[in-house]
Amino acid sequence: MRTWAIANQKGGVGKTTTTLALGRLLAQRGRRVLLVDLDPHASLTRAFGIPLEPPPTGTLELFEAAPGDARALARDTGIPGLSLLAAQPAMATLERRSATQPGLGMALAQALERAAPHYDHALLDCAPTLGLLMVNALAAADRLVVPTQTEPLAVHGMEGMLRTGQMIERSRRRALPASVLPTLFDRRTRAGTSTLDAIREAHPAQTWVQAVPLDTRLREAEALCKPELPADLAAGRGLEAYARALDWLLREDAALEDAA
What we know:
By secondary structure, the chain is an alpha/beta fold. The chain has a single domain (2-259), classed as P-loop containing nucleotide triphosphate hydrolases (Rossmann fold), CATH 3.40.50.300. Helices cover 41% and strands 14% of the residues. The chain contains ten helices and seven strands. The chain has helices at residues 15-28, 43-47, 70-73, 94-97, 107-115, 132-140, 152-172, 190-202, 231-234, 237-259, and strands at 2-6, 33-38, 75-76, 82-85, 121-126, 143-149, 178-183. A seven-stranded mixed β-sheet has the order 3-4-2-5-1-6-7, with helices on both faces. Helix 5 (107-115) packs across helix 6. The chain is globular, with a radius of gyration of 17 Å. The two termini are 16 Å apart.
């Protein structure tokens, strides 16, 4: 199983939309995909129409003293090949619990390792906060995918995320390749084009040569959660760009496997 952490230390850059789009496209290609909502705000969970009251079972149970089974906790999304581990607001309490419950930093990696025979890909939708949940995601991941809005303020979050990935890479003593995925690109604006150029210049080897364009059909993540995609969304330029980005990420993974 390949595990991708979808993360950025800035909100509003398209993390949940990226997780949904890549996950759905992988499932369409016949892959068995597990989506893991690691954000206490639970945007990914709510996109599938799962109420937060009463709290659903899901990700939080992986951090219990006797952790639950990820496969048993995952729920069917109604989309063939796509499963979800739901988030709960109480996940925000894990930071305090980590002081008295040792070993929480590797809880997610251990849970995904046990579930690996049943999935081809796990996509981790991370909160924009550097804490226990993000550390868990980066400790478990085979690749860090950094969606980055093409506007100046988002670049700071991207740079911080790349530095965090490097820090975790050193501590775990295992490579954590990072891929920068420009999103919400509006070619009509000078800020958008100049920011995209700056990202490519700063990180040429890690940045996708294209960009996911600003597409109003992707603004509502719930549309990506329907069993049948709306025709305009399925044929839209946003989802088509994500399909090309997925091809790039899969090629990057294949190249690493060939070099191993």
